[in-house]
Amino acid sequence: MNKIVMTFTMSLLSLNAGNLCDIKTKIIEQKISIAKQSNLKYTKEKLTIALNNHLKYCNDKDIIENQQKTINKLKDKLEDKEYDLQKAKFKGKDMDKISKLEQKVLDIKRELNLEISILELLKKEVNENNSKQL
User: Fold this and answer.
1) Are the C-beta atoms of 98 and 87 separated by less than 8 Å?
2) Would you state the pLDDT for residue 29?
3) How far is CA 81 from the centre of its chain?
4) For residues 29 and 119, what is the distance between their CA atoms, to the nearest angstrom?
5) Is the Cβ–Cβ distance between 47 and 55 less than 8 Å?
6) Distance from the CA of 75 to the CA of which of 23, 106, 116, 120 falls in 20 to 30 A?
7) Are residues 91 and 46 both part of a single domain?
8) Which positions are tagged coiled coil (predicted)?
9) pTM for the complete prediction?
10) How far apart are the first and last CA of the chain?
């Protein structure tokens, strides 16, 4: 599900689909659709609540701040997994465990890079919207 949503997010941002709140609305709606198709009732309910809150309170500044928070959490998670990996290597854990930890580190790095790219695109969108308003 995450890869589909990220692909959708990147395509929306690359098309300059409107202001950030509109883009975020479309992303949440897409996540709800995917959750519904995947029979993830709890996820769908949570996303529906998130969509309602988003529609009430959305502004571009909060979207960028939340994206930065997501990046910071991923950085922390990456540090933890890299530490776990180093510790496993130092203790001489079996190669299967080390391999799994290496894969987790790679997955987090990919996700982090994607989230950073999204943040850069969001900031670019805000700058372009501000330029148009001048």
Assistant:
1) no
2) 92
3) 18
4) 20
5) no
6) 23
7) no
8) 61-129
9) 0.71
10) 39
Torsion of CA 55, 41, 39, 115, to 10 degrees: 50
| Amino acid type, 62 | D
Q: Which pLDDT value is given to residue 10?
A: 56
The boundaries of the domain holding residue 32 are: 1-58
| The residue count for the chain | 134
Cβ(106)–Cβ(78) below 8 Å = no
Domain count, the chain: 2
Place of tokens 């959750």: 35
18: left (phi over 0), alpha (psi -120 to 50) or beta: left
pLDDT band at 131 (very low <50, low <70, confident <90, very high): confident
| Interatomic CA distance for residues 70 and 47, integer angstroms | 17
